[in-house]
Amino acid sequence: METRHAVTARTSPESARDIPEATVARLPIYLRALTTLSEQGTSTCSSEELAAAAGVNSAKLRKDLSYLGSYGTRGVGYDTDYLRYQIAREIGVTQDWPVVIVGIGNLGQALANYSGFRSRGFRVVALLDADPARHEEVVAGIDVRPFDHLEQIVRDHAVAIGVIATPALAAQDVADRMVACGITSILNFAPTVLNVPDQVDVRKVDLSIELQILAYHEQRKAASA
Amino acid sequence: METRHAVTARTSPESARDIPEATVARLPIYLRALTTLSEQGTSTCSSEELAAAAGVNSAKLRKDLSYLGSYGTRGVGYDTDYLRYQIAREIGVTQDWPVVIVGIGNLGQALANYSGFRSRGFRVVALLDADPARHEEVVAGIDVRPFDHLEQIVRDHAVAIGVIATPALAAQDVADRMVACGITSILNFAPTVLNVPDQVDVRKVDLSIELQILAYHEQRKAASA
DNA sequence: CTCGGTTTGTTCTCGCGTTCACAAACTCCT
DNA sequence: AGGAGTTTGTGAACGCGAGAACAAACCGAG
Ligand SMILES: NC(=O)c1ccc[n+]([C@@H]2O[C@H](COP(=O)([O-])OP(=O)(O)OC[C@H]3O[C@@H](n4cnc5c(N)ncnc54)[C@H](O)[C@@H]3O)[C@@H](O)[C@H]2O)c1
Ligand SMILES: NC(=O)c1ccc[n+]([C@@H]2O[C@H](COP(=O)([O-])OP(=O)(O)OC[C@H]3O[C@@H](n4cnc5c(N)ncnc54)[C@H](O)[C@@H]3O)[C@@H](O)[C@H]2O)c1
């Protein structure tokens, strides 16, 4: 046991053992549920309450939280604000994350106007578009700038996260440029598979895939009726 | 073998054995990759090629396709258009799916303007909003109508799929109304947990969760450096 | 017709995630 | 102080999905 200590501590001084991906994906949901409870004046909550608010099984919730540490009190529950802070710290939303959005069309404008960014620690530092006609525009109080400014902006603001909202054909090029100037996390809305180096994280949001999954189940319901 | 035939055929006359959820979620990706290949003039492709285009492992691809049936030819590969049709049929995108969008703000307008809907068999039959000021507007060639018209529209067009793009506070009410008038599949963009009956499918798209997941990994990268 | 080369469809194994169930730990009341 | 009632944290069982590996099936050449 004692000799294993180095292994546990290797990754980082403070906590940071490896949390399962499935759990990481749920932590933001718990965070939101805790914020809601806190706003309603709930200072303490049980795993049962919190699980209900988050829409998950209470056993799963407790197991997820156990990866972070022991922040609850048996027989009592969790202190809402304390747990909220611990999860926020673990995810990293206690700090400020600068973000660039590339492709300020229908979707890019909606994203720029989305207030849920700022309130969770993400700050849009630039809007970029390749179309010169758009460079006149101001969206959500931010100037739309030429895509060529990417390198400078990323350097000046130490941007690590980029959002792609261009047409599918341009997405790979944009991603390559992002990677080249040091961005290591990409959120991709274009319906295409991006090829990036291993150390770069890509998450994709694909609306039409979601609809097609719904259609599949809808079809099955109709068939069995 | 022979006696098992009834079991295979029980669920439905045409195919429709139960496909794993993980596979269902990937079928739309394969569909898109096949469309791309087909447009490039590729009439036949191996599992290796298709897997590369879809960004998955070739063994996983073959396993996924095996749930649909045996549509390939050993030693040759898959006929691009034939496989594409089979997947489209299995998902249900060979038919037309009427869709309503509720909440025509920043995001709702972007969705209404999204061409990827129509091209995959989804037809926006109505845009609904509670704000009377918006009822003057025309978005993407479609009139914005009062939310109260929901029941009539769902009845007239046999709508099964609804999209929610309202603020979080309104989302549960909108979902309740949708369920009450017969909608059985909901795509929810509001950052809230929806309570619906079991037979109703809900999928949620949550941008800020995606960003938070990226932030978590970004933080870990920074910590280990 | 046979044989070598190719690619599919499937079997098997392994690891991850979910869920159950319960001991440990805490509060409150008597 | 002690016991009843609550709730957490976790060990263990289970099921599903990922990937490796291989036999079966197909093509084409000779
Ligand atoms: N609109 C939606 O609701 C929606 C939903 C899901 C997915 N998507 C996807 O999101 C992407 C954007 O959709 P949209 O409706 O906003 O499209 P859009 O055409 O309205 O906007 C695309 C923008 O990207 C810019 N652009 C093109 N090439 C570029 C480049 N190389 N560098 C920088 N900017 C470039 C264009 O000038 C334009 O402003 C598309 O891939 C689309 O498939 C959109
Ligand atoms: N804008 C984005 O990029 C983005 C991204 C992710 C998630 N979201 C979420 O999507 C939702 C919509 O975002 P938005 O930026 O479009 O907001 P928005 O305020 O621009 O639009 C909301 C629209 O919903 C309408 N509405 C309100 N209550 C309604 C009701 N009961 N019935 C029908 N319509 C109603 C409003 O009139 C308004 O037009 C929000 O929940 C937001 O958190 C938005």
A few lines on this structure:
Two copies of one chain form a homodimer. Chain A has helices spanning 5-9, 21-39, 47-54, 58-66, 80-91, 106-112, 150-157, 168-180, 207-224, and strands at 44-45, 72-73, 77-79, 97-102, 122-129, 138-139, 142-146, 161-164, 185-188, 201-204. Chain A is of the alpha/beta class and 225 residues long.
Topology, element by element:
The structure is a homodimer of 225-residue chains.
Chain A (H helix, E strand, L loop, with lengths): L4 H5 L11 H19 L4 E2 L1 H8 L3 H9 L5 E2 L3 E3 H12 L5 E6 L3 H7 L9 E8 L8 E2 L2 E5 L3 H8 L3 E4 L3 H13 L4 E4 L12 E4 L2 H18 L1
Parallel strand pairs in A: 4-5, 4-8, 5-7, 8-9, 9-10
Antiparallel strand pairs in A: 1-3, 2-3, 6-7
Helix pairs in contact in A: 2-3, 2-5, 3-4
The complex binds nicotinamide-adenine-dinucleotide (NAD) (2 copies).
One nicotinamide-adenine-dinucleotide sits at the interface of chains A and B.
The first copy, chain A, binds a DNA duplex (30 and 30 nucleotides) through helix 2, helix 4 and strand 2.
Can you tell me about this structure?
Two copies of one chain form a homodimer. Chain A folds into two domains: 21-91, Arc Repressor Mutant, subunit A (Orthogonal Bundle), CATH 1.10.10; 97-209, 3-Layer(aba) Sandwich (Rossmann fold), CATH 3.40.50. With 225 residues, chain A is of the alpha/beta class. Chain A has helices spanning 5-9, 21-39, 47-54, 58-66, 80-91, 106-112, 150-157, 168-180, 207-224, and strands at 44-45, 72-73, 77-79, 97-102, 122-129, 138-139, 142-146, 161-164, 185-188, 201-204. Chain A has nine helices and ten strands. Residues 1-15 of chain A have low confidence and may be disordered. In chain A, helix 2 crosses helix 3 and helix 3 (47-54) crosses helix 4. In chain A, strands 6-7-5-4-8-9-10 form a seven-stranded mixed β-sheet, with helices on both faces. In chain A, strands 1-3-2 form a three-stranded antiparallel β-sheet. At the A-B interface, helix 2, helix 6, strand 9 and helix 9 of A face helix 2, helix 6, strand 9 and helix 9 of B. The structure holds nicotinamide-adenine-dinucleotide (NAD) (2 copies). One nicotinamide-adenine-dinucleotide sits between chains A (102-108, 129-131, 134, 147, 165-168, 170, 173-174, 189-191, 207) and B (110-111, 113-114, 116). Chain A binds a DNA duplex (30 and 30 nucleotides) through helix 2, helix 4 and strand 2.
